[in-house]
């Protein structure tokens, strides 16, 4: 039976895993809103500035959440190596977190990082709930 710490760690990793793609979507939608506000429709300059700020903040937030995921994966994999569970994850899973952070700018790295981090999360959940 996993402890509460293991359960909360898994949920924290799951949130950090989900936030960068959501920030990417928010950034792209606000970029579209910014481009539309610059079109022929009369809008206030405040609307254009708000869309620009939202685009910038969402983009950088996605990068920061991705890097936080990399750090969390590194610490979590190091902690799991010291336990008596059957699975010994390598700290190299943290590289998937770095690739996940790059995905917020390029989108293509998500093709690599989503399956890798998803595998880590599913495997971690199965091993710790069985043990």
UniProtKB/TrEMBL annotation:
The chain crosses the membrane at residues 12-31, 43-75, 95-122. The keyword Transmembrane helix applies. Keywords: Membrane, Transmembrane, Transmembrane helix. This is Uncharacterized protein. It comes from Haloarcula pellucida.
